[in-house]
Amino acid sequence: MPRLHRLAAAERFDRRDQFPISFFGVQHMPILAIETTGAACSVAFADGARVREHTCIAPRRHNALVLEMIDTLLASAGVRPRELEAVAFSAGPGSFTGVRIGAAVAQGIAFGAGVAVVRVATSTVMAEQVRRRCDAPGVTTVRPSRAGWVYAARYAFEDGAVVCEAFDALVPSDAVPRGSARGLAPSHEDQAPPGWLVAERDEPLRAAVLAELAGPMPRLDAAEAIPFYVPGDSPWKKMS
User: What's the Cα-to-Cα distance from 52 to each of 30, 133, 142, rounded to whole Å?
Assistant: First the structure.
C-alpha cells in the first residue's frame, strides 16, 4: 500500500523566533506572499527570478510576528510595498484566526501600497507541496474544522501541476481514515482513487510555494481580500 505522506513539523522550519531565508526559482512579477493559516508563520517575496522566504513555527503568535517578518523580508530584498505587483495570501480554509490575520494584513498592505491582492486556497498550497515530494497521482488534503469535522479537498497531479477535482468541503472527521493512503472525496460518497495520498493537517505550509502558485492567478482589488468560506462551516444555528 502506498505510504501516507507527511512532512515533519520541524522540516525546513526553525521553531525559534528566527527568520531564516531560503531561495527558490520562480518566474513572475514582484509578489509578497503571506501564509498564516496553520502553525507556520511564513512570508515570501518573489521578484521574477527567485523567492526570498522568512518562516518560523509560532502557533497562535502570528499577529505578533507577521508584520515584523514582512518588514524584515522586504528590507532584505530592498523593496518597498508600493513596488510590489500584488500581495498574495493563503485564504483558507484553516485556523479561523490565522486565515483572517493573513487576509487583513494582505488587505492593509494592498490598500496602503495601491496594489492588487491574490487569493490562493490553502488546500492548493498543501497539494502543491505534496506534489513536489512524491510521485502519487493525486492527494486528498485534510485540515481540522470544528469538533468532529474536517475540511477535505481532492487534487490530481497532471503535467507538473495540481488540478482541483473537488474543492474544500466540510466532512465528518471519521470519514477520512488516518494512516491510510486512500481518503474520501469531499462528498464523502466515493473513495479517492487507489494510490492517492492523504495530506494531514500537520502539513506545514510555506509562503514560497504560495508565491509561485499566485504568479498566474487573477489579481483582485484590495477590498476582495477575504477568506474562502466553506458551506456549512459555522457552529451557530439559526433560531426560529
Answer: 11, 20, 28
